[in-house]
Amino acid sequence: MNSPARGRRRGKPGTRQAVLDVARRQFLANGYPATTMRSIAAEAGVDVALLSYYFGSKSGLFSAALALEVNPPLLLHKAIDGDLATLPERVIQVLISTWDDPESGGPLRVMLTAATQDPEVARLVKEVVQTEMVRQLAERFGGVGATARATAFGSQVAGLLLTRYWLQLEPIASMTVRELVPWVAPGLHAAMAGPRRRVL
Question: Which of 8, 25, 156, 166 matches a 20 to 30 Å C-alpha distance to 141?
Answer without folding.
Answer: 166
